[in-house]
Amino acid sequence: MKSKKNLIKQLVITDLKMRYQNSVLGYVWTLLKPLFMFGVLFVVFTQIFKVGKAVPYFAAYLLLGLVVWTFFVEATVSGMHSILQRGDMIRKITISKFAIVLSANISALINFLFNLCVVIAAMVLLSVPLRWEMLFMLPLIAFLFVTTLGISLLLSTLFVKFRDMSHVWDVVVQTLFYATPILYTLDIVPRNIQLVQFLSPVTNIIQFMRWSFITPEAPTIIDVSTSPIYYGIVLSVFITILMVGALYFKKHSKFFAEEI
Prior knowledge:
The protein has 12 helices and no strands. About 75% of the residues lie in helices and about 0% in strands. It has one domain (about 1-260). It is mostly helical and about 260 residues long.
């Protein structure tokens, strides 16, 4: 167990160093990328399309959504490529493949936590009131991390077999981006579409984070439906993602050395 922890630690450190190798600004890019995207979208959706005028603290509302989404994309993409990137190591020595995917997700999580500091700073500047519901942020982050890990396990296995998965996931991510209420508010979406949107764990996490962190007026799945059956369906989607990812990875990871 201790050796596996040391392995994960070294893989995370190596990944963070390699990510910004030969970069002038280095880790500053972790903060600049979501801030730049936020700046552009904030101007477009508040000054041109007037989408966020009715939302309290829309700047922080939008920034938090972008930061969560950035983590989701970064974690799943890096997780997908992690096994192939460590191909030489896998072929030469016996190593935990799970630790490789996990370390990629932890690296993304570290960047995510830095970005959350930016969100908190924006909240202070915008005078967003502190609420006790912010304590829900910790289990929500854990829920988000487990979700991305389950998807990463599935994607990394598929990517070893089918290199086209990188392009397929790019299309899926682009589709999910517009299907997730990041740039717009849910009040402009018909209720039947909202029910479909909340089947996504990412939508649930973003809206609950906004509810706990920014404003109690942020709609969550509880505002969309009170049906226990619907809640069961949403939970089953989450469990299915984890189970399929973990089982598929476990079944095929033993053959990675031969397939890479």
